[in-house]
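For homework, think about our next protein:
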Amino acid sequence: MNNKSRVVIIGVGAVGATTAYTLLLRERADELVLIDANQKKAIGDAIDMNHGLPFVGKTKVWAGTYEDCRGAEIIIITAGAAQKPGESRVDLLKRNVAIYESIINEVLKVNQDAILLIASNPVDIMSYFSWKKSQWPVQRIIGSGTLLDSARFRYLIGEELNIDPRSVHAHIIGEHGDSELPLWSLANVAGTPVQLNQEQRDKIFVSTRDAAYEIIEAKGATYYAIALALDRICTAILRDEGAVLNVSTLLNDYHGVSDVYLGVPCIVDRQGVREVMKLDISEDEKALLHKSANKLKELIHSIEVQ
């Protein structure tokens, strides 16, 4: 029996490869497996990373097959069609559902116990689809959700206030996408409400919401910050931290929202999503959350889960 911790990354494009490299640098797992439809690319990435092992540690890295998902604790899926300049995340839906159908069928053949960490866009819908398709307990199917959006939000607030973003406590919830919403009612620094006028708030939120479009227009893809976000989720799981992270999970009467995956603060540990944190949000924020949920539900219901 393999007692070593194993993380598998399915899809080693920009996001997958950067995530693998981040996990390698931080020595998160004993074994790191790269799987891609383009096996030559996966092999090249594995060789390249192995050549750096004398500088970082003892992680074993290789380009594998779905058989290597056997025994993995976390399987990260970043595979899918790339988001093109000017294309919304939901435009990717039909293409990515077909890709996921194939991937999950292969994973299920060899592993029934891992945590599936979903990063492909539109991430909330892909997470919901993965949960339905796998029929696994909901806590073990986690989307990257609004963790990255919240980090962008905290960074921009910190920049505006000239405060370290790690000391800014603020949340983006809802869809990882155009209908996400900022929780200004709860944004604080050391318990003190964030002192920003409406114009500053509007500017910060628009920059947060549209960040991916700006980056994609500038360089074709986003991958550094999402890799760090995925690493953070993996760390919470592997170390059984009980960390509060804004990941995407199935909501059940969350301020009246049910049967949809959305990003909200959750307690994440070795079980996956141990608990969903029900925040005390304003009536206006509840209305925006319902709007976000309804948008995604319409899209989810357009997918025929086999």
User: Anything to note?
Assistant: The chain has ten helices and 14 strands. Residues 147-300 form a domain with the L-2-Hydroxyisocaproate Dehydrogenase; Chain A, domain 2 fold (CATH 3.90.110.10).
